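User: For my dataset I need records formatted as: sequence, then structure tokens, nothing else. Please produce one.
Assistant:
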Amino acid sequence: MDLYAFCKGLPKIELHAHLTGSLSDKTVLRLLEAKRKDGQVNLPKSAEATIQRGHNRTLEECFKIFGILHCLTDSIEAVKNITKDVIQEFVSDNVKYLELRTTPKSIPGKMSKKDYIDAVLETMLQEMKTSRIIVRLLLSIDRSRGVDDAWDTLQLAKEYISCEMYKFLICGIDVSGNPKSGNLSHYIPVLEEAKKCGLKLTIHLAEIPNEAETLAVLKSGLVDRIGHGTFIHPNSGGSQELLNYVHHNQIPLELCVSSNVKTGTVKSIQDHHLTQWRKDGHPVIICTDDKGVFSTSLSEEFCLCAEAFNLTKNDLSELCISAVEATFLSQDEKHQLRQSVQSELKVLLVKTQSSC
């Protein structure tokens, strides 16, 4: 069994996947064609060529993709379609547990933020009935939209977690957006209120060097997981104080190798901070970020990391098991998921040995 086949067979956990950015090129092209036929989209013909470049897309072209995606997700039906396709793509990649994150979107005359969330949650429920996957939702606070918008998102989250049908589906809040916009310290009161409501918090931290902001957010004691954390470790541009705090509190890091390299926050795969955190025995989770935009999959990310950092098949298996503890599930749910992952890993390892 070759490395990619093994990685594809791993029962994987995905904890950092932005909904819209996770759309595959195939799905985006299909949606774009449908929009063009109906005369509903005003995009240059070069949009298709940009999408089809896949792995060869430049950083500038990756950002163009985000603009294309925004135009394609402008109705309730479109939101349902993309949610369904993204979940099915993760299912086909043998992802057993998926935490999707998305910023509630409103378009005057077409859909409210509540309509948007309803569409995502309804589709999640439908897909879990027919596929062997557990899906949960993180509502995203976009730091570039301001604190008032963050309070609005939190209020929506509070309404849903008090609803019997949906309360188990929303497991937390994500804070993301342009790391150069605003100051995360201003969002701490919102995050404190979220924690009081029982919501878990995953925060994009240190995507760019900003020690003061990162320390302020960490020392609030509110962070359950860190997204990226590129400039925390002193060996990758952070500081010993940041490292000490994160390591002492064992805050898991969601690491997205292709995304970091493609966006230029990390010079090369070999320079990625994953290897430093693993040397320190710190909990890390391999994730995709925006698998569609960066033309990857979770299996490809596992394979990439294995080759770059000399990870064995046992190392990769352990990463799947340890990721369970970092999920925002209850302890009982984690126990059940861990048993399922371990059981599937045993079968995979037997197949691997028999094929040698």
